[in-house]
């Protein structure tokens, strides 16, 4: 069977391809309901922190592995597929006449993609400046009038930090924005 990568509107992958709900039941997508043989949206599992019954817990959440893409295989009409809502294009390459031709994907590649689908992906959190900086640590001031100075953090409050700077022949406490600081 020949597969093709189809570009979709953002956050419409599960709507078109289907997905498992929180109870583990399959919810068919629009394309499956309309009779397309094979529709596949590879997923990855990430843990999201939430509060349930007053306790902070991590719950697994499925996300599309490729944002804005699904895979369609089998026999279908390109004209009907491209007329579907939320489908923007087929991934392909131009031929010798400059017309864009969909690029087929082999069964072998799709099998590898199916093996990877659903796997747990370690989530790399973006740096939370409140946790990246701690009282007593040293930080470099990256912007502002005190740029390129290294200062000790005296306190953190909201989006501000109090730091000790060497000014006027002594140490002074100054308040700066957290986004002006870099780890020293």
TrEMBL record:
GO BP terms, alphabetized: DNA-templated transcription elongation
Highest taxon, organism lineage: Bacteria
Ranges of residues in domain NusG-like N-terminal: 1-114
Protein name, per record: NusG-like N-terminal domain-containing protein
Cited SUPFAM superfamilies: N-utilization substance G protein NusG, N-terminal domain
Organism, as annotated: Hyphomicrobium denitrificans (strain ATCC 51888 / DSM 1869 / NCIMB 11706 / TK 0415)
Position of the signal peptide: none
Keywords: Membrane, Transcription, Transmembrane, Transmembrane helix
Transmembrane intervals: 57-78
UniProt cross-references to Pfam families, sorted A to Z: NusG
């Amino acid at each position: 069977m020949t597969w093709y990568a189809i570009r979709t509107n953002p956050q419409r992958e599960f709507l078109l391809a289907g997905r498992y709900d929180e109870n583990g039941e399959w919810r068919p997508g629009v394309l499956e309901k309309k009779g397309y043989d094979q529709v596949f949206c590879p997923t990855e599992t990430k843990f999201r922190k939430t509060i349930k019954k007053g306790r902070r817990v991590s719950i697994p959440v499925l996300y599309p592995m490729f944002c804005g893409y699904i895979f369609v295989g089998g026999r279908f009409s390109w004209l009907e597929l491209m007329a579907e809502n939320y489908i923007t294009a087929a991934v392909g390459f131009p031929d010798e006449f400059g017309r864009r031709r969909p690029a087929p994907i082999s069964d072998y590649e799709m099998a590898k993609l199916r093996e990877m689908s659903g796997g747990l992906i370690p989530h790399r959190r973006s740096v939370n400046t409140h946790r990246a900086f701690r009282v007593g640590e040293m930080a470099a001031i990256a912007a502002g009038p005190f740029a390129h100075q290294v200062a000790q953090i005296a306190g953190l409050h909201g989006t501000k930090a109090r730091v000790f700077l060497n000014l006027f022949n002594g140490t002074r406490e100054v308040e700066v924005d957290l986004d002006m600081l870099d780890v020293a």
